[in-house]
Amino acid sequence: MLLTTECEDEQGVRLANAAKLLSAVRSVDEIVACLRQTARDIVGSDGIAVVLRAGDDCHYVEEDAIEPLWRGARFPVDECVSGWAMRHRQTVVIPDLENDPRVPQVAYGRTSMRSLAMVPMGAPEPVAALGAYWCAYVEPDDSTVRRLEILAQVATIAFSRLSAPS
Description:
Blueprint: H1 2-22, H2 28-43, E1 47-54, E2 57-65, E3 74-76, H3 81-88, E4 92-94, H4 105-109, E5 115-121, E6 128-134, H5 142-163
Antiparallel strand pairs: 1-2, 1-6, 2-3, 4-5, 5-6
Helix pairs in contact: 1-2, 1-5, 2-5
């Protein structure tokens, strides 16, 4: 139990450091870079992706993963999990990507990713999503999902600050 607590404490410190970095960003590119550099360690995943809404598309602008995922790819909002999370304004956790109708099997079939958690970012309308991926069939525990949601909430504040009138 001590090892788990120590790990959660380390991830909490990483989350606090990421929040500090996000409080100082001045552009969308800086938000994306911060999430890319911090999210994977904060949630202990095998990969993360930062997705920006671009009209009717979800643009996978950045990633940090054990293998290439979808950087640079665009998927219709109605045909991907990041779009689902943004449209429904809620976190989605999928322990088995092969058996969920929201998952485009063609896109995931070429990767070793088997599970995910996807969180929308932006308020009142989501403008982005942050996804965490695992190579195993797992359901991330509540504390892992909560850390991902907190990181997304802090990023939402950063997005809001950029769009606020000066």
